Amino acid sequence: MSFLTKKFLASAVFGSLLAVSAHAATLNIHNGGDPQSLDPQKLSSDYENRIAGDIFEGLVTEDPKDDPIPGQAESWTVSPDGKVYTFKLRDGIKWSDGQPVTAGDFVFAFQRLLDPKNAAEYAYLQFTIKNAEKINKGEITDFSQLGVKAIDDKTLEITLENPTPYFINALMHYTAYPLPKHVVEAKGTDWVKIGNIVTNGPYKPTEWIPGASVTTVKNDQYYGEKDLKIDGVKFFTLEDQEAALKRYRAGEFDIMTDFPTDQYEWMKKNLPGQAHVTPFLASYYYVLNAQKPPFNDKRVRQALSMAVNRDVIGPKILGTGELPAYSWVPPGTANYGDPAYVSWKDMPYKEKVEEAKKLLKEAGFGPDHPLKAQLRYNTNDNHKRVAVAIASMWKPLGVQIELYNTETKVHYDEMQHGQVEIGRAGWIADYNDPDNFLGLLVSGVSMNYGRWSNADYDKLVKEANAQTDLKTRAEIFKKAEQLALDDSAAIPLYYYVSKNVVSPKVQGFEDNIQDIHRTRWLSIKE
Q: Which Gene3D superfamilies does the protein's record reference (predicted)?
């Protein structure tokens, strides 16, 4: 593919999107899980992203439809070979303490992200930057060799390993947010505590009660502060969807970010237009610990995958129409075309179950030696429904399942530490590209909860990302995906739909494929 020099300029048009009749107000959001930090380099979940994207801003940010627009950078150019991006920062941008945001703050943030001592889980998302992976793996210790340079206070140059079609989108992710070097160096790990933290986004945090809520107010140093229609936000931690719906109906929440699916039909009739169910670039799946018996046996993994009747999960178990997943990359992902599928996708379900029984028998399991396993999921009514249903689908195989649930933070911590036999997981795209899904199965990646490892797969993913031709890149990615599916690396179950409930008084909420809705575009109309 050829790369033309491009220049993107900020436009005042986005400010006019908020020209609605509304008064300033506080927005109350049911946010789900409990954030583990306000440090953007310590996050990993959508409920953390909702907060981080309000209080920080990268070089590039999102418009109401989640398309990239200039953020802290007013413009950028791309070299003809597609490898060097030069960003010009806006005039007068400041941290919430009034100190200027400089190109050096971005250099500092990227170096800290990739410093192996900091063990940032998502560091790999920025491995497209020159020498990023080698620095993160300790192969290069001179951080000045990272391809992120401050030409001067207002000019940042980023050099990539290879031309990367999704790079601008990746800069919207919280791993690319700047950090206030002057505060981090002065306060150390305490820099994120309320009273110390300074941010550069539309809002700043004023209170954080772990297990309860995070509260923000307008950042009066933000360049677009005069256009903000919401005074601040209270993000509530609450994983009980039934309780959340009751609080929404009582007027305590303006937005719910999930809801109990068995209430969907009721909501359509009784809360018309308020339940938003939209196709979503995300996958729901189960992992199996491929490092431990019996799940290190491909036959066991494939048997459990084949015995799941995916066609009933969306319409009957959840009731919100999620589509069955037989691929690892969701259909419709950019720069890809049709994904690869499991070879048995179109086999009648009864035949799948019979084949699954044969595979388990070959692996040594049967009536006299049943497969016993623990299935873990994070506390949520919908996750429980799916887990109960799948355990019953496995019962005819002679599989005995113990269900085990914990709060979200504990669940994912235990998954990352390998304390799982079978575990529920979900992946919401950080950027619209197959690499973001396929990267989850690369050896050593912290989000590879099942610890499946295949050298050929790793090689194919790396080879694809070195391609400049999008067609060739997609073909190689598809080979990698097929390899993972043939080996039953994990069990894809369904492609998500986003499920929000939005009060009629909230204006500017636009459904989009990545379910990102920044507060700066919203207003409240009584």
A: Dipeptide-binding Protein, Domain 1, Dipeptide-binding Protein, Domain 3, Periplasmic binding protein-like II
The alpha carbon of residue 405 and the mean position of all alpha carbons in its chain are separated, in whole angstroms, by: 21
Running DSSP on this structure, what letter comes out for residue 201? S
What mean pLDDT is predicted for residues 364-375? 93
Long-range contacts, stretch 482-487, CB < 8 angstroms, 24+ apart: 482/340, 483/454, 483/456, 483/457, 484/328, 484/438, 484/441, 484/452, 484/454, 484/457, 485/327, 485/328, 485/340, 485/341, 485/342, 485/343, 486/342, 486/343, 487/298, 487/301, 487/452, 487/454
CATH of 280-497, one of 2.30.30.230, 3.10.105.10, 3.10.580.10, 3.90.1720.10: 3.10.105.10
Structure tokens belonging to residue 41: 């380099």
pLDDT in tens, 174-233: 999 999 999 999 999 999 999 999 999 999 999 999 999 999 999 999 999 999 999 999
Q: Say what the pTM is.
A: 0.82
For 389, how many CA atoms within 13 A lie in the half-sphere containing its CB? 17
- State the DSSP string of 27-81: EEEEEESPPS-S-GGG--SHHHHHHHHHH---SEEE-TTS-EEESSEEEEEE-TT
| Structure-block tokens of residue 476 | 């190689």
Cα 416 to Cα 145: distance, rounded to the nearest angstrom: 30
Rounded to an integer, what distance in angstroms lies between the CA atom of residue 60 and that of residue 170?
Answer: 9
Tens-place pLDDT, residues 250-284: 999 999 999 999 999 999 999 999 999 988 899 99
Q: How many CA atoms lie within 13 A of 22 on its CB side?
A: 23
CA distance 259 to 112: 37
Locate 524 and state its tokens. 């409240």
Tokens of 448: 């590879």
Determine the length of the chain: 526
Domain assignments of the chain as residue spans, ordered by start: 26-233+503-524, 280-497
Contact predicate 497/428, CB 8 Å: no
Question: Residue 276: beta bridge partners?
Answer: 500
Taking residue 7's Cβ as centre, other Cβ atoms within 10 Å add up to 10
- Per-residue CA distances from 138 to 69, 132, 162, 248 (Å): 34, 10, 21, 49
Fold of domain 26-233+503-524: Dipeptide-binding Protein; domain 1 (3.90.76)
Using alpha carbons only, what angle is made at residue 247 by residues 246 and 250, rounded to the nearest 5 degrees?
90
- Res. 20 pLDDT band, cuts 50 70 90: very low
What span, in angstroms and rounded, lies between the C-alpha atoms of 145 and 134?
A: 10
Q: Which two tokens stand for residue 194?
A: 């309320």
Axis-axis angle for helices 381-394, 241-249 (nearest 10): 150
